[in-house]
Amino acid sequence: MDIHIRSMRQEDVEICGLICYQAFKNSAECHNFRPDQPSLEFSIQLAQSCFANPQIFSIVAESDGKIIGSNYLSEYDIVRAVGPLAIDPNVQSEGAGRELMKAVIKRAIHSKSIRLVQNAFNLASLSLYASLGFNVKEPLVMLEGNVRGDIPSNIEIRPLQNKDFAQCAELCRRVYGIERTGELKNTPPFLTSFVAVNDDRISAYTSAPHFWALNHAVAESQKDMQALLAGVGNMSGDRPISFLLPTRQSDLFRWCLAQGMRAIKPATLMAMGEYQEPQGCYLPSVLY
Question: What PROSITE patterns does the annotation carry (predicted)?
């Protein structure tokens, strides 16, 4: 198959959304999991949002003048993040995914690190990323449910404010070794970020606890993370929270299950380039 990679155009958005919807739906349902993207409209809106964002590199794969796949590279911060990668189900395993991945790797090759999260049940994508040089860094599980709990009297849970970005960046550097301020500031306005304030110091934050894919969170300790999640849950009514949890954080995993949260799917965090083991409690987004 002759494959040509080029930049995405506005007229490509709808077909890219359709391909992404079909690809993720087929893969999930084949393995008896819930699709990541709930509707075609959602997938088209996602493609439009990525294409319109100047901090996201958006590309497509063509064959015989027909779009057969797309990929994205988020460039918010020093770490670059890949995805979602989607290939037309009719032409999968014919090289388009590899070419789209090689294109984003080439663009990001001089960055500190390139990272991604893949669905662990998708062995084809796991094999593709590993063959291109990505290393498995963390087993993850997506959790969803309603969390309730008492908050220590010295901790306040509230929505993030503009004045909080500097403290959040410092906390992220201590835990991750890098900051994610660009990503945090790009949280869509229809989602709310929250912080835990411990004696006038931000001890935890979460970027989008009501939408797992865009949510990342960091905390000084597991107790701070639990207080943050419980506080957000207390303010959420019947609206569930959802996030990706590194399963090696076993005590936090058990606490979440005891709260009634359900495991939805397994995932894998992978990285190419520099990677520092987080020094604290954290939850990755679908980017990393």
Answer: GNAT (PS51186)
